[in-house]
Task: structure prediction
Amino acid sequence: MQRTKELGKHELVLKNASRRGIAIKAEKWSESSHRFLISCCDAGNIHACYFLGMIRFYCMNMRASGAALMARAALGSHAAAVFSLAVVRFNGSGGTAASRNPRAASSSPPAPPS
Result:
């Protein structure tokens, strides 16, 4: 049992955890699930970066760190993260009506094919 627990904290395992493996339902959200996602992000898991970025941006009102995590996922060719950042730019989420920028959103580079 101890070896399995240690393996679950191994950086390679955290980096390669699947989308389904990191998906946490809202009613199951806890501080430990938050720490788990942070560990996955620190290990370089782009799915976790996108997922935690969306949660921080839209649910926790932590717009800057949420957008930064989504950008990190987008740089890793996560298509949903690229789309989400374009929507944020287009809508000017978190800003005023004057901060909407459709040109910037449309000029966001597409994610390279995976």
About this structure: The chain has one domain: 2-106. The mean pLDDT is 81. The first helix runs from residue 2 to 7.
